[in-house]
Amino acid sequence: MNGAFLGVEQSLTGRRWVGPAPEDLRRAQALSQATGLPDPVALILARNGIAPEAAEAYLDPKLRDLMPDPSGFRDMDRATELLLDHLARGSRIAIFADYDVDGACSAAVLSDWLASLGRRPTIYVPDRIDEGYGPNVPAMEMLARDHPLIVCVDCGTLSHEPIAAARAAGAEVIVLDHHMGGETLPPAGAVVNPNRQDETSEHGYLCAAGVVFLFLVSLNRALRAQGKPQPDLIRLLDLVALATVADVAPLLGLNRALVRQGLKVMARRERPGLVALSDVARLRAAPAPYHLGFLLGPRINAGGRVGRADLGARLLTTADVAEAAALAADLDRLNEERRAIEADVLAEAMAQAEARGADGPLVWAAGAGWHAGVVGIVAARLKEAFGRPAVVIGVDGAEGKGSGRSVSGVDLGAAIATCAHEGLLLKGGGHRMAAGLTVASAMIEPAMERLAALLQRQGAGSMGRGDLAVDGLLSAGGATPELVETLETAGPFGASAPQPRFAFASMRVAHVRRFGDTHLGLTLSDGASRLSAVAFRAVDGPLGAVLEQGSGGAIHVAGRLEIDDWGGRRSARLRIEDAAPAA
């Protein structure tokens, strides 16, 4: 094993720093020599396995080059035929959507397309607490009474009984989803899902909004063949990008092009809902994946977690600026409520995980009365803290409802689906990076034991809990806006394409201040230059105690660089993720 980067065997957060692998450094050097790319960009491409001849296409992903033929997906042509037939007949159309960001964006994308043709669909979003995930029989029967066509987005692949009930009530059903499919499909007229078991598509990494977008490509192609006008699809990519990032879909292949183009569309600030949400989130810079995942996404999710489930979809579909501002303000307030609830659950879950031991293949916690709307976020926090797949379960009497988050290379959705198939869970499923489950309270322990065994087979137990990957060493003077912009050419960064992380050696804290309840704003110095920095949620953790000392000894810091446009002055800023004494 190579020595720890900068000699950091155990940082303030208990992690070992690991530098680039020797083979990546060799590949990066070859890439740089062959392409003329700057060394930091070449290293990112080498880390992602990009060959010199593929570098140009990777750095400039184009939809036209990466877009698959929608007809290659099972049931796509049938779904296209069904929807166009109902449009021709003047049928009322209902959209049944999941209550998360991907569901809201999927509903908004389809609704926007229909609105361009003069049709206003009904959007139905179930209540997380009262109805749970996915279609349910009462809701589907209610919608079927007035809507000859129901389109389920980001849900429906496992909803056999509710879809059968809708069909019995006289409605046709189309499913546009990406969650793992079972051995049999529900009795829908069409199920378009790159993750159904009989699917041969290589695009299982798409989120639901990505699947919906391909459906619209298919619809537009059919309209063009009929000599009819087609709605503009490019303007919908802001929503597809938001869903892709917020749903932690890997930024590979087609997803890179969707997000890259979507960020450009979002920067035009043409959608009232996203403009209002950006304003309440105080997003002043051009949007980046980080903003989608940590500023906009959580606020849209807040409606489904602790408020009214349909708020997100309503915000994303409204054309009224005043309504958008009111909805965004509601979601911002609900997000604050969600954060307070989350903090309480996180403290208990973290204590449980530590007591149980978090060096195995799975970190999990369960507690009575834990709010179902925050267990997924808390699972994500545990995953970040321990570098392991994590599951958090809120128990209500004889039943628990949980949510899980995975790490790169470990398919949590498949493992949870296996536990459900084996009868250890009442139900469960999802996708590689996130999944949900319902379990009898008496079965939580054996279910988690079995889940851990399945994840260990995928290699989850072999990961070093404390490893923090560092891409290289920079000086404070070398951290410039120009460097950040150069690095961004290798983006977008997100799941399966991590933003580069750099270390800064022997820095001292020249200035520190608190903002919010738990965040720190800092000025760091290496003696020659200064660097602006921020440490989110650091005050109550191991970082805060050292960083707030200010006049303490020299420290190594590691984190990710971003552009700070505050006050009209453009500079580089370090988002600190870890630190260690410079002994």
Automatic annotation (TrEMBL):
<dbReference type="GO" id="GO:0003676">
    <property type="term" value="F:nucleic acid binding"/>
</dbReference>
<comment type="similarity">
    <text>Belongs to the RecJ family.</text>
</comment>
<dbReference type="InterPro" id="IPR038763">
    <property type="entry name" value="DHH_sf"/>
</dbReference>
<keyword id="KW-0540">Nuclease</keyword>
<dbReference type="GO" id="GO:0006310">
    <property type="term" value="P:DNA recombination"/>
</dbReference>
<dbReference type="GO" id="GO:0008409">
    <property type="term" value="F:5'-3' exonuclease activity"/>
</dbReference>
<feature type="domain" description="DDH">
    <location>
        <begin position="92"/>
        <end position="244"/>
    </location>
</feature>
<feature type="domain" description="DHHA1">
    <location>
        <begin position="363"/>
        <end position="453"/>
    </location>
</feature>
<feature type="domain" description="RecJ OB">
    <location>
        <begin position="470"/>
        <end position="578"/>
    </location>
</feature>
<dbReference type="InterPro" id="IPR001667">
    <property type="entry name" value="DDH_dom"/>
</dbReference>
<dbReference type="InterPro" id="IPR004610">
    <property type="entry name" value="RecJ"/>
</dbReference>
<protein>
    <recommendedName>
        <fullName>Single-stranded-DNA-specific exonuclease RecJ</fullName>
    </recommendedName>
</protein>
<dbReference type="Pfam" id="PF01368">
    <property type="entry name" value="DHH"/>
</dbReference>
<dbReference type="InterPro" id="IPR003156">
    <property type="entry name" value="DHHA1_dom"/>
</dbReference>
<keyword id="KW-0378">Hydrolase</keyword>
<keyword id="KW-0269">Exonuclease</keyword>
<dbReference type="Pfam" id="PF17768">
    <property type="entry name" value="RecJ_OB"/>
</dbReference>
<dbReference type="InterPro" id="IPR051673">
    <property type="entry name" value="SSDNA_exonuclease_RecJ"/>
</dbReference>
<dbReference type="GO" id="GO:0006281">
    <property type="term" value="P:DNA repair"/>
</dbReference>
<dbReference type="InterPro" id="IPR041122">
    <property type="entry name" value="RecJ_OB"/>
</dbReference>
<dbReference type="Pfam" id="PF02272">
    <property type="entry name" value="DHHA1"/>
</dbReference>
